[in-house]
Every structure is written in structure tokens, then in C-alpha cells.
Amino acid sequence: MWSLFKSYWHILRKPSVHYSLGFLTLGGFIAGIIFWGGFNTALEATNTEQFCISCHEMRDNVYVELKDTIHYSNRSGVRATCPDCHVPHNWTDKIARKMQASKEVWGKIFGTINTREKFIAHRRELAEHEWERLKANDSLECRNCHNFDFMDFTRQSKRAVKQHSTALASGEATCIDCHKGIAHQLPDMKGVEGW
């Protein structure tokens, strides 16, 4: 064991052409810390509402709709921003969502929805992608704020109580199944079962 340690120590102290391997390792470690800090800073900067609405496609379409909902302005003053609903909070899930969102950058570059008319034409497809994502993760972003265990059924309508106490409790449904269009206008739902 000691001889193995000595051989590794010798390799670390052995000079490369200009610097020792130990110096290069330490330099790589410091560079890694700087990279990680820059990466996290960029990740957080792109995870703000200001970043989301910096492009006119979001600002002029879905953000305008959000302003008319209870998620934007309500009696308690608690407000959901774009990342609260569209970006998972867990780091690994957040990275996966950011990688998916990189596809959306191509839409920005190529002007897929750069006018109101194009946005409306693609609206249902965009909504269905988001609904599928929320269905797949059991409406995780909704549940970050809305905890089923703490719902006060006495303050809900009879229909809501029935839905929450049966379908949700049994695990047969998730938030997005019933709450499509809660923060944005629904697309044309012609031909969709149940609408």
C-alpha cells in the first residue's frame, strides 16, 4: 500500500514539460470551481421571469395572459413566475428541462412563433407538449406550491371537493388533467375528448 502511495506521489511530483502534474491538477481543480460557479450563475440568470419575457414572443403572448390570472395577482400577494411553473426545482430535473428548452432556442432563431399569428397557429402544439410534460412528472411544478395534504376542502366548491377527494387521492389524475388553461388561455380545443 505504501509503495502504491509513493508511486502516485512520484507521478504527481514528476514535472511535465513545464509544470508538475500536481500543479496541473490543482490548476484544473481551481478552473473547475470557476467553471461551476459560472455555470450556476448562468443557470440562475436564465431561470428568472425577466429572462423569460425578454423575448417578445413570451412577453407579448403568454405573459400578457398570465397578468389576468390569480397566479399573477391575488389576495395573498403570492405570485407564480414563469420558472415556478415551467422549470422544476430539483437540480437534476432543472438541468433536464433546460436541455429540453435548448430546442426552443431554435424556434426563436428561426422565427417559428415570432408573430401573433404564428404563435396562435402553434399554440395547441405548444400547450400539448407542456401538458404532456406536466402529466409525465405528476404536475410536480404545481405541487411545489399546492400541497394536496393541506387543501381546505371546506373552502372549495362541491365539484372541486369531489374531484380532489376522489380522483387525486386515488392517484388516477394529476393537476394538469383538470386545470389546463389555469394561467394561460386555452388553444382551440375542438376535437379534444372532454372539452
List key phrases describing it:
elongated; mainly alpha; Multiheme cytochrome fold; about 200 residues
Report on the structure:
With 195 residues, the chain is mainly α. The protein has a domain at 24-147: Orthogonal Bundle (Multiheme cytochrome fold). 61% of the residues lie in helices and 0% in strands. The chain contains 10 helices and no strands. The chain has helices spanning 2-13, 21-45, 49-52, 56-66, 82-86, 91-110, 116-136, 140-143, 158-170, 175-178. It is elongated and about 75 Å long. It starts with a helix and ends in a 17-residue tail after the last helix.
Assembly classification = single chain
Let me know the number of strands: 0
Radius of gyration: 24 Å
The SSE order reads HHHHHHHHHH
Query: What average pLDDT do the residues reach?
Result: 86
Q: How much of the polypeptide forms β-strand, as a percent range? A: under 5%
Please report the number of helical segments.
Answer: 10
List segments where confidence is low: pLDDT < 50 over at least 5 consecutive residues.
none
Distance between the termini: 71 Å
